[in-house]
Amino acid sequence: MKEGRHVTIKMVADKAGVSKSTVSRAIGNYPDISDKTKEKIFSVMKELNYYPSAIARSLANRISKNVGLVLPADDDFFLNPFFQESLRIISKTASSRGYDVLIAYNGDNETRSVERLVKANKVDGVIMMRSVVQDPTIEYLRDSNFPFVLIGKSIDYSSVHSVDTDNVDACKTLTKKLIDSGCKKIAFIGGDKNSVVTIDRFNGYVKTIEENGMKLNKDLIQENEFSSMNGYRSIEKILKNDSSIDGIVITDALIFSGVMDYINNHKSYETGESSIKIKVIGTFGTGNFQQNPDIEIINVDVDSKILGEKSCNTLIDLLEGKDVEMTQIVDYKISNIN
Amino acid sequence: MKEGRHVTIKMVADKAGVSKSTVSRAIGNYPDISDKTKEKIFSVMKELNYYPSAIARSLANRISKNVGLVLPADDDFFLNPFFQESLRIISKTASSRGYDVLIAYNGDNETRSVERLVKANKVDGVIMMRSVVQDPTIEYLRDSNFPFVLIGKSIDYSSVHSVDTDNVDACKTLTKKLIDSGCKKIAFIGGDKNSVVTIDRFNGYVKTIEENGMKLNKDLIQENEFSSMNGYRSIEKILKNDSSIDGIVITDALIFSGVMDYINNHKSYETGESSIKIKVIGTFGTGNFQQNPDIEIINVDVDSKILGEKSCNTLIDLLEGKDVEMTQIVDYKISNIN
DNA sequence: CTGAAAGCGCTTACAG
DNA sequence: CTGAAAGCGCTTACAG
Questions:
Q1: What residues does the HTH lacI-type domain cover (chains A, B) (predicted)?
Q2: Whether A332 contacts A197, CB under 8 Å
Q3: Residues of chain A with CATH 1.10.260.40
Q4: Of the candidates A83, A228, A269, which has its C-beta nearest B294's C-beta?
């Protein structure tokens, strides 16, 4: 299938009249080589269209120049703009530093896919996107002392390299904004309640509600999964419990989109009237620019690009033996959308 | 960083009292091994927690057990649900057949990222998602005789393995449905006009319009990029040219979402009235379930899962020397959404 | 049914 | 500044 014959370092060496060692050193850009032979070698490499085999190199060096990207197994995750932006930037960053990205999944309570990659030496390190409480993959990686960095926070383990937004603080600030805007009854709709992100944001919400002398009401709180369907159903339930809410805090772009769908669909098209009294929605990411002139939208932008870029650079720094901080916090931005 | 010492085939052999060859054969599940030694070897492997090095294996076999997934470089692509679903299923399929997925990009007129993967022997074959006219990556892959399969159609080259929906036919059927629903003036909003998908769908639209004695009107046609912003702006432009259109054909979920945003935002919230007279929208994927009681939505479902799965299986079949068809067409489904 | 040996294509002490 | 040799961890004819 492939070209008849792969050109190897030996062929380059022969043609250039030097040894394999010398060619290897030329490629590796070692200092102690005469410019003359170096030039000769490079010209032969070009002529022969030579490319070192990454595989052979890996075996000799015991490094693969691959990083594994571990994705959550739930389908919804892939619909999240956060994932998309991160994947792209991680891939770019890795590539700029000479690494490639290999995909792996983090199934429910199963680490096999990651374990296979690690044990088979297919990756040098791993980036994990989103973790749950007592994440088995984290436990496995930590126990086998394998280099990895987590996008997000590890609740259970302290000695984990991580890049995260301060989600508790972000959600406190966000909730406070709703209160400052005059909201008296603020609902909360979150994703998977085992997800660390959801937990942090929920805590921020709770603290702010309590600190401001409002009472926490279970009927106004929904936590399910990271999907627009969840948003749609959650807001429906909440409104059934109490139609007088005037604000909502939402933890995720997909959920937000489901909530907006619900609201837009439940306005009378005849009269333009709506029984929905929501004045302000605070959310983490909107996904697209759905609007509604009656509702103020406050968005927390967690900067998935910086998170992705930092996680990747941190991992590679780690692999290259550089000093890295254990925990890095990336700023968030809050802004009004309409 | 890693565990003190990696366990190798040699250590297993020694402990089991056999040679490396025999261990290798046991792993490879060769027939000619006595059950006794096989058992012995497996128990030692378990005991030592041995895992063969994929790297060493690759070097010996000259295969990497990796497939490259080549993604378009434009950011918008990543927001497309089609991409997300495909990535997931491709990854699953590859994994079930013992392969891993490596990400690569197909930059504007540049094949470097793919070329590097191929030349460095990091992948055995490549899956390309979406191609443009005279795609340089396709040319490179074909010229170097490297195994690959294209999701989509190759306009320029016939001897390319591909898995595709019949987009011309699908868009003909779709457009005809709008006509049957009574539409008299049907606009068209498409993505990048160099993209083969867009071209095919546009052709389907054009043919149907002409076959039904309607006249093609440039003012009603917009082709730009695969983004919701494009949808928003395109519908705005078209309506400015002619506010009497009563149907639209849209080639992409993101574009659709932008169009719906526009329509929902340009209805008077006071009176519920709208100057927009669109009765039916035909689209390829909706992304989410945005609705509008005034508008009938007809969706073509291109089944990205089957496309992803087939492309991956075809590639691996190819790598394993099985017979595969050059072109495979996957059925689409048309259904009314509301 | 099993082992010794050569080979996959690199890198890297070691010696000069 | 350069080369010969050993090694990375496997596989696979070849011989028995």
A1: 7-61
A2: no
A3: 9-52
A4: A269
